[in-house]
Specification:
250 residues, globular, Ubiq_cyt_c_chap, Ubiquinol-cytochrome c chaperone domain-containing protein, Ubiqinol_cyt_c_chaperone_CPB3
Length: 250
């Protein structure tokens, strides 16, 4: 291992340990959600709890480490891109109105629904950065790292609600990994094709081929294309510095 790689590795470990040392008293209380299929909205409450990444993002923002990328996104520093990726990930994982989404698009209130929704929005962010190959590669790698860290943390939280989660953890992680790979590939193909192609990709990956209402699927296709157009109007430099301020609804 090269010296620089070792330093980066040790730095990541130190940041992780520092985040882990935060006392639980700093975590704000979470209100029970409405309309959840679990008692008192436990799943949604778990998904909305501040994560380590959210706390780290607060520090990064206050210390000015997330800076506007100037003079071309391909000249962005690696550390800036890592910070931008963490910010963008949080906006995909926690910035979407989860309850409204699952209600509008007929998805069950489950961990896998949250994962699918998050992956879809991560893909839309990466789609906007397609023209900046180097930047997209770094941001994609770091967002996926954030995703797996967050998945692990959320499964641990769900374990406290339902002990059976721990038994299925390895199976769930394997399913998530496979879904992530195939979703990115099929969404890429779908966005380049017609609405029928995109609808097929969403039907297979978001609904496991089980959705029977074509109107709901058509609305989801419109949502994806709408978000893609909205993000396309945002300059890559601005997206890396400010992220997605709000996921607009149709």
């Amino acid at each position: 291992m090269h010296c620089r790689q070792l330093c980066l590795f040790l730095n990541q470990i130190n940041r992780y340990r520092a985040a882990r040392s935060i006392p639980a008293v700093l975590q704000p209380a979470v209100k029970a959600s409405r309309g959840s299929t679990l008692p008192t909205g436990q799943l949604h409450a778990t998904l909305k709890r501040p994560t380590i990444l959210r706390w780290m993002l607060g520090l990064l923002g206050k210390s000015g480490l997330i800076r506007t990328v100037r003079e071309g996104t391909d000249n962005a520093g690696t550390h800036d891109l890592v910070d931008a990726a963490a910010m963008l990930y949080l906006q995909c994982a926690n910035g979407v109105d989860y309850l409204n989404f699952i209600e509008k698009y007929h998805m069950p209130d489950t961990f896998m629904s949250w994962f699918k929704i998050t992956v879809l929005h991560i893909w839309m962010v990466l789609l906007r950065l397609t023209g900046t190959a180097t930047v997209q590669a770094v941001v994609k790698q770091e967002m996926v790292y954030c995703l797996w860290d967050d998945v692990d943390g959320r499964l641990a939280q769900l374990k406290r609600i339902s002990p059976s989660v721990s038994v299925k953890r390895r199976e769930t992680l394997g399913e998530c990994y496979g879904l992530l790979l195939i979703s990115f590939c099929e969404y890429d193909e779908g966005i380049l094709g017609d609405d029928k192609t995109l609808a097929g990709a969403l039907w297979r990956n978001m609904y496991n081929r089980e959705l029977v209402d074509p109107v709901v699927l058509s609305n989801l296709v419109r949502y994806v294309r709408f978000q893609a157009r909205v993000l396309h109007r945002v300059a890559p430099e601005l997206m890396l510095s400010e992220g997605v301020k709000e996921w607009q609804t149709l």
